[in-house]
Design a protein that fits this description.
The chain is about 40% helix and about 20% strand. The chain has about 270 residues and is α/β, with parallel strands linked by helices. The strands form 3 sheets. The chain has a 9-stranded mixed β-sheet with strand order 2-1-3-4-13-12-11-7-8. Strands 5-10 form a two-stranded antiparallel ribbon.
């Protein structure tokens, strides 16, 4: 029998925002992630932390070294805003990077990890990914990295982000890019951790992305992501066409590869 591994999932959204999702029947990011992990039927014990909303993180921090891995998910927060919720996440990530060896940092998780490691995140200069990222290209370093094992060299994928990494940490390795964000895939080591970071969501379906667009339509129009409802409708139609050609196993390949890495106790880190 395969040895049980224990991982920590960090929820990036506040509990208040997640309650809004629940009220309209949309899964939280953590719920979506767990559902995708369950698809692979791994022998896993999963704990959940929400550093923005959990009142007492001391016990969580003290027990971090018991985890074999960490997955840090998405959020609607902006890392450059100086709020208590964001400071708590940054401090918690710093502790994780001191104690957990294998980290998968997804979207917001990548931005928090990069910030702690000395990189810089800012508002995307070329616009936002609005439910989908087009034409992500894996570079030469990316083709060597296990996160992209058996992944097509150019692909579309679910994504929702207004911010981007503009400076990568020292000795970080850029793995993939697209026309909107130069940093779409990244690997770097800090202290104890080997961090695989992606600026998109292999664990989330396009259907959920469409639900998020409809749920947040007023906010998105106010932010300038869409001009009006007509543009939203056209954009959603484009994503619906993508659903017809998207394959679940291909979409989630990065998550599958990281889970396999989690169970490979003999694998040497490629970049030290």
């Amino acid at each position: 029998m395969v040895e049980k591994k224990r991982i920590l999932i960090v929820e990036g959204n506040t509990r208040e925002e997640n309650n809004e999702f629940t009220q309209v029947g949309i899964n939280t990011h953590t719920e979506s992630l767990i559902k995708s992990i369950d698809f692979y039927k791994k022998n896993l014990e999963i704990d959940i932390a929400n550093p923005s909303s959990d009142q007492n993180l001391t016990s969580s921090i003290e027990s971090l070294d018991k985890y074999d891995g960490l997955i840090w998910g998405g959020s609607s927060l902006n890392i450059y805003n100086d709020t208590d919720e964001i400071r708590r996440q940054i401090n918690f990530m710093r502790e994780c990077q001191n104690k957990i060896k294998k980290i998968l940092a997804i979207c917001w998780g990548l931005q928090v990890a990069v910030t702690v490691a000395g990189g810089i995140v800012s508002k995307s200069s070329k616009g936002a990914h609005r439910g989908i990222a087009h034409n992500i290209k894996i570079n030469e370093e990316g083709t060597k990295h296990p996160i992209y094992l058996n992944k097509k060299s150019k692909f579309n994928t679910p994504a929702f982000n207004f911010d981007e990494v503009i400076k990568i940490p020292n000795k970080a390795i850029l793995l993939s890019s697209n026309d909107l964000n130069n940093v779409m895939g990244l690997q770097f080591n800090t202290n104890t951790s080997d961090i695989w970071g992606i600026q998109y969501h292999p664990e989330i379906t396009y259907e959920k992305m469409i639900s998020l667009i409809h749920f947040r339509k007023e906010r998105l129009i106010n932010k300038g992501a869409f001009r009006d409802q007509e543009e939203i409708n056209t954009h959603v139609e484009m994503i619906e066409k993508e659903i017809k050609t998207s394959e679940k196993i291909s979409r989630m390949k990065e998550l599958e590869n990281w889970l396999n890495y989690l169970y490979d106790d003999t694998e040497q880190r490629r970049y030290n």
